[in-house]
Design a protein that fits this description.
Blueprint lengths: L15 E4 L12 H13 L4 E3 L8 H10 L8 E6 L1 E5 L19 E5 L3 H15 L4 E7 L6 H17 L3 E8 L2 H10 L4 E5 L9 H12 L2 E5 L17 E2 L2 E2 L2 H16 L4 H7 L7 E6 L4 H12 L4 H9 L7
Parallel strand pairs: 1-2, 1-12, 2-3, 3-6, 6-7, 7-8, 8-9, 9-12
Antiparallel strand pairs: 4-5, 10-11
Helix pairs in contact: 1-9, 3-4, 5-6, 8-9
Length: 326
């Protein structure tokens, strides 16, 4: 198989993508029809980049997304999935749900870490089967720091580089919400893109310290995910009791959030629109991926992504010390 162009060199990688964890029943159960309606809304809104993973609903996200995308021309969308966790039968299955991982699906399968070359290849092949789509444009190593980052750098990423060299995938990267892991991977491997989850948002930018400079030096592109910070930025009037990752929102971040929302209001810009478009102000960021479990959410997010935002908003936020100067 001949090697296709690498995604990081393309100027037309879609600037807005859909992260398909929700159609894997993240946080709540969706019927097949509800999931299809969400994907339909994303497509109708112009989204042409779709990201999924075996982790999302123990394969349900890949199956649902694949069934939907099989109805679309293959050359009209970019598709990414992830490796690092294999899905294997759960010997302790007793009719329960995978709610420990926030997915409302039967836990008849379990996730098994495998960063070996054989494991990476098996994960790719099994994702292709679940998706019903042979061509995967972009392959991410998923949350390597949760298992063994050193092993990921030594074995998994070289295995992925070989898959790319052999033309099995178009581009490779890692996806993580830990800046140190992202920066280490960028320094250690020839990556096309990294998915920065929640670490480069309108509210906080820890990835700006090491990840963005590393990507700038190596020519690695960035896909920004979780840009609403667990939903805090998803509404124009933030709530103090909003969820922040795995715990309560710290006072310092709440104060910052209130000030950011006030500046956005002064400019007549909805806070969620600023949240979606902010990461794209950095030249290293190629795309922003948003989620959503309702069709109306996807319709609204595509409108926010297209909304004209005055450059004065970014200048004012920077002058207030609320975002770094880009």
């Amino acid at each position: 198989m001949s090697s296709p162009e690498r995604v990081a060199t393309l100027s037309d990688i879609p600037p807005l993508g859909y992260g398909a964890a929700n159609v894997g029943n993240l946080f709540r159960e969706l019927s097949d029809d509800e999931a299809w309606a969400v994907l339909d809304a994303a497509w109708d809104g112009g989204i042409r980049y779709f990201d999924t993973a075996p982790h999302y609903g123990l394969g349900l996200s890949e199956r649902r997304l694949g069934a939907f995308l099989q109805t679309k021309p293959r050359d009209e969308f970019v598709l990414s999935t992830k490796v690092g966790r294999l899905l294997r039968p759960n010997p302790e299955y007793a009719g329960g749900l995978d709610t420990a991982n926030d997915f409302h699906v039967p836990d008849d399968l379990q996730r098994v870490w495998d960063f070996s070359a054989d494991g990476i290849r098996a994960s790719l092949d099994e994702s292709r089967e679940r998706l019903g789509i042979e061509r995967i444009d972009l392959l991410y190593l998923h949350d390597p720091e949760r298992h063994d980052l050193d092993l990921a750098l030594a074995e998994a990423l070289p295995a992925m580089e070989k898959l790319r060299a052999d033309g099995e995938v178009t581009a490779i990267g890692i996806g993580s919400m830990v800046s140190d892991a992202l920066a280490a991977a960028v320094r250690s491997a020839d990556l096309d893109l990294v998915m920065v989850a929640g670490r480069y948002t309108l509210l906080e930018q820890p990835a700006a310290t090491e990840v963005l400079p590393g990507c700038r030096e190596t020519g690695t592109g960035i896909v920004a995910a979780s840009v609403f910070n667990s939903g805090l930025l998803a509404v124009s009037e933030p709530r103090r009791d909003g969820r922040y990752e795995y715990g309560q929102l710290p006072d310092e971040l709440w104060d910052r959030l209130v000030r950011i929302a006030a500046v956005c209001a002064d400019h007549g810009v909805p806070l969620p629109a600023a949240a979606i478009q902010y990461p794209l102000q950095a030249s290293e960021v190629r795309s922003v991926v948003v989620g959503g479990s309702r069709a109306a959410q996807l319709q609204q997010n595509t409108e926010y992504a297209a909304l004209a935002i005055p450059s004065a908003l970014w200048r004012n936020l920077a002058d207030e010390g609320l975002i770094p100067a880009v």
